[in-house]
Fold:
Amino acid sequence: MATELQSRTSRPPGGAKSLRDPTKAAGNTIELQTVERTFTDRRGARVPALAGISLRVARGELVALVGPSGCGKTTLLELICGLQAPDAGTLESEPAVLMPQRDLLLPWLDALDNAALALRIAHVPRAQARERAASLFAELGLQGFERAHPSELSGGMRQRVAFARTLLAGKPVLCLDEPFGALDAITRAEMQDWLVRALAPTPRTVVLVTHDVEEAVLLADRVVVLSSRPGRVAGEIDVALPRPRGRTEAGVVALRERALGLLAGSASA
Amino acid sequence: MTRSLPSRLARLLPPLLLALALLGAWELYADLGTTSSFVLPAPHAVASALWDNAGFIAANLGPTAEEVGLGILLALALGFALAVAVHLSSPLRRAVYPLAVGSQAIPVAVIAPLLVFWWGFGVLPKLVVIVLICFFPVLVTTVDGLRAIEGEQLKLLRTLDASRWQAFRFAELPAALPAALSGARIALAVGVIGAYIAESQTATSGVHAGLGHEINADLTALQTPRAYAAAFVLFALAIACFYALSLAERVLAPWAHPSRGETT
Structure:
């Protein structure tokens, strides 16, 4: 396994303002070594969330993290995004942007302004920021909804705008936290196809958290199964299947069963 | 527009019916003659007092409307500024919040002489009284509005590299705007009575000193119907200001009312 690391060294929570060219050089973008994270609950008891997680994500790789609820998936993403710091172990990651489970679009901004939020924060003038967002809208199947406010958009549309906002942050790593978890089954399937197409032209390093094993197998290059709290890596599955993948393909079904087996094993352990 | 006229009338019907029923009951009770007309004039007597003294009452409405309007705007500005300060600095919150709550318990009569001593017989001491009464609901609702932005939203903004100021400007500030206007609507309800209290407690020079002054003078002179007529104007002023602010809220913060035009 490649140990050489081209990425920046670990950064404090909330730090890292530099942007990097996501297409630069190959190697690991994210590397975690026996990372531990413990919370203290209201009564002062220590609750371990992550217990010795080691994980490497290569540049351009799409890694899905699956696990039972409460296995520390969201904590792991926040560590990668620099929103939290590990209590033990080392964590190195290139600048990452978070796409939370709920779209968290700002209700007073229209779709373009919401998508262009990161550009506005980077002091790009509003007209220019909207223009850049608009060019992305066609690609994401959002044309015609530029001026719509979040309350006027469907759940799937809102997730697309949130995804546009994530892309326009210009960071090499995308952390997607159950991006389709709140959607109905049909919209969810559409959005999974859509994500594959949206990522195809410019591959990014993606960490996708999901509790849906099938979604993980359909979308990811590699599936990492986490055990229930405290989270540990229970197993990894390489998904060497061509895209687009159908959910009834024999390969997909077999890997899905394997992942489910790992999940069940980790739960009973 | 013409087609919506019947539906508009239909919407006006319930408040009109309720008002008419209350007026009818009042008229009957007054006409039964168990109370003196000095204590409770009948609605028709109030109406004719309003008609006969329209010019006089209108002249007194001027200063009172000015006090209420300016007072609410100042209270909105002060309440909002305090809310932002208190939101951004928790030492400041701990220092200011108890004082703000306590300030609501101060009887105006206690400080009125001081206000007059400082600022005389003009509009300023009255504005101070109204602002003192009205800033509080704005402060409370705005602080709640600023806090309504969830931790998750702030985390997202941090991964988009927003500074503390940018998180405030892009998320918290717009979220607080409708909350502040809601606070101003509550403040209005107490602001009109605040103007009456202010006029009662701080002396005024000049002929037309405001509706509060007029009401007190009329009650002393046993001109009860005219006092009721002036009170009715205060009543109408509160309603008009309330709906004006609702309208402002819908224009300034349309996202807070997604079903626009359908509800009042």
In short: Residues 72 and 188 of chain B are 7 Å apart (CA to CA). The longest helix of chain B spans residues 164-201. Confidence is low (pLDDT under 50) at residues 260-264 of chain B.
